[in-house]
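re the bet — no i am not wrong, look at it urself. input seq straight from the record:
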Amino acid sequence: MSRKIFYVAILVVLVASLVGCAPKAATTTTSGKTIVGLSFSDYATERWPVESAQMTQLLQKMGYQVIAQEADHDVKLQSDQIDNMVSLGAKGLIVIAEDGSAAVTPVEAAVAAGVPVISYDRLIKTSKISAYLSFDNVEVGKQEALGVMTALGLPGSTTWTKANPAKVVLSGGSPTDNNAVLVRQGQMSVVQPYIDSGVVKIVADQWVDNWDPAKAESMMENILTAQQNKIDAVVASNDGTALGELQALAAQGLAGKVPISGQDATADGCNSIVKGQQTVTVFKDTRLLAPKAVAMIDQLIKKQPLTGLTSYTLAILTGDKTLTGSIQAAFLPVVQVTKANVYDVVVKSGFQTYDNVYRGVPADQLPPTLAP
């Protein structure tokens, strides 16, 4: 069992113990407490079981009973779980959607039943949600692309010219996750001028279902074969897919030679950065997102107004002009992380531990340990 799978398994057990139910099982309650439902697309993504546990603990301290379930990337299962939470009497829902379009039906049914819904980190494409809470995903994409372009020496490079453009792979996230669309918008705001000037050539453009590292690895293998290993950079959209693609790059002796981006500042992603393989990640302090969502659902259940939100049209947020209506949203800031600042930004803040980030790094290359 890999270290990452082991950590995720431990976290899933932790979450199940906190909420008192198996992730997929129907849950009944006789506590008499107000119920809040947490609906997660999956627990395979490193951050989700952590945030599920965090929200569960916060809500329980506030006196709520929590039903937390994950759908294992199954759209129908998530829809059924949401319906079940409502039937069990949930008075508020926080939903991390597997598919932002498919989740519309159960979410609108919940709202029609008087249950407010917060779209957490992934947009549910309906104006019926009470709020959308996430990070600035366009800025995430910008910082990813800036990190990769900087590593290529752009702007100002004399290596890349119209006669010899940098061969760049675009690797998007899950096509059912609107965040992937927003991240790509940010990426292209940086990369497109270089394409237009002829110093960058896009040799492949892929989207990775479910943000699955194994699928990303397989797709990169195919790209490397098609391009005869002649690629110069990868603008990847999260750490998981980047690490999958790095497996394919490593097999061809290209890991650490081809700049590649990610996001989430995962332990494995940061470790890859300090080892000189992954080039850049984007730090999103999820420790701030979960408490904000909990505070918001508490306000909604108590019929209190939400503050600090900005109105956006669905058309703007999705790039789909056929979608009508507006939603209230809040976007938290993000920070670009490279080998130069990973210690100060990620380790010193306590987001990832020193030992996890620097595992396997030679002693003479380690920064000073943090004071106890």
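see?? The first helix runs from residue 3 to 19. told u. also The chain has two domains: 3-135+302-332, 137-284+336-355. so pay up
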